Amino acid sequence: MSKVGIREVAKLAGVSTGTVSRILNDHPSVTNELRARVTAIIKDLGYTPDPSARSMRGKVSRLIGIVIPDLTNPFFAELVQSAEQAAANHGYNIIVMTSFDHAAKEADRIKQLTSRKVDGIMLVPSNDFHTLKLPKGLPIVVVDRLMPGYSGIAADHRNGVRLGVEHLLQLGHRRIGFISGPGHSVPANDRLRGYLDAIDLARERADGTRMAGPPLIAEAAFDYESGRSAGNYLLARARNERPTAIFASSDQQAIGCMRAAHDLGIPIPAALSILGFDGIPLASMTTPRLTTVKQPIQDIAAAAVAVLLNKQTAPELDNPILFACEILKGETTAPPQPD
Asked: Smallest Cα–Cα separation from 23: which of 11, 10, 5?
């Protein structure tokens, strides 16, 4: 049996090949009734568009490039998976490249994707993005690590941390330690500002909320071992001085901090509450199950793909789209014990 072509689909549907093409490209000018009828015929015939032919005729590759700093980071892995699903919903595939958080490699990856004629690039910049110059004429949307002067989409890191601190305050905690991310990271700095905002607001409140002592902060990379080291640092205090709760800037840090508490014989959450940030699947697999502030990763990825494909208006420069975070309550936060 010869391969079914677009002409056969159009003939059976009683429409032009251009109409079939618009339906395949998800063009909004086609009515829902016609779209449903032609889509059913496409399915019955088993018609599969030729990507290379479509690229030559329409000057589109049906490819979206994605550049991330680190594929081993569970957050970025979930972001890529969500972007792939969103792209597939529009009939697109993705090409993923890793910059290893290095600006020179990042520039090379973008150059490679440009040469492959991708229709757009979703970029999570390296932390030294200040030296990066993005090519003009190609749709690029910056995700998570926002860059001044470029369209950006991210979670509202700052308000997400405020939400987490408020959760701990409502439980009765007044000595709340914070594991920040690395100082050169844009999201880490936003999360640190959110923590400091929340602590300052708590000091000003007239409802009896009084913070005990100065903020307790440990800077660390976003990984497990760094979280473990930061946890040891924050907990190396007398019982009446150490934090009764620790808010980590990533779930990996939080899980490392849980290990530090375990090694020190501090039960969670009876003697120490721990709160993470990101909402990666691993957070639900710990014992006890980690309470975390979840980033809406699927929404972020879907919005980035929609912007690249002109399905959604791009955010204005220096006015990014920020998605609200939410608390996923697990088993690692509880009211503090008396000293």
From this structure: 10
pLDDT in tens, 82-125: 999 999 999 999 999 999 999 899 999 999 999 888 999 999 99
Q: What is residue 337's three-state secondary structure?
A: coil
Task: Write the pLDDT tens digit of every residue in 148-167.
Answer: 777 799 999 999 999 999 99
Query: CA–CA separation, 219 vs 230, rounded Å?
Result: 7
Please tell me the predicted confidence (pLDDT) of residue 285.
96
Lookup: tokens for 198? 């929340």
Grade residue 49 by pLDDT with cuts at 50, 70 and 90.
low
Tell whether the model's pLDDT for residue 51 goes beyond 70. no
User: Mean pLDDT for the chain?
Assistant: 89
Instruction: Please give the helix or strand (H or E) that residue 95 lies within, else none.
Output: strand 93-98
Task: Give every CB contact of residue 287 below 8 A, 6+ residues apart in sequence.
Answer: none
User: Which stretch of DSSP H or E encloses residue 179?
Assistant: strand 176-180
What's 237-288 look like in SS3? CCCCCCCCEEEECCHHHHHHHHHHHHHCCCCCCCCCEEEEEECCHHHHHCCC
242: CB partners within 8 A, 6+ apart: 175, 177, 234, 235, 236
The rounded distance, in Å, linking the Cα atoms of 67 and 121 is 7
Beta strands 321-323 and 326-328: pairing type?
Answer: unpaired
CB burial string 111-134: b at 16+ within 10 A, e below? eebbeeebbbbbbbbbbebeebeb
Cα Rg of the chain, angstroms: 24
* CA dist 171 → 87, 210, 337 (Å): 41, 13, 11
* CA neighbor of 143 nearest in space, from 311, 301, 312: 301
Task: Provide the angle, in degrees to the nearest 10, between the axes of the packed helices 251-263 and 224-235.
Answer: 50
pLDDT tens figures, 203-242: 776 555 566 667 899 999 999 999 999 999 999 998 889 9
Q: Is 134 in a helix, a strand, or coil?
A: coil
Cα–Cα distances in Å, from 228 out to 75, 93, 256, 268, 313? 19, 38, 4, 15, 42
pTM over 0.85: no
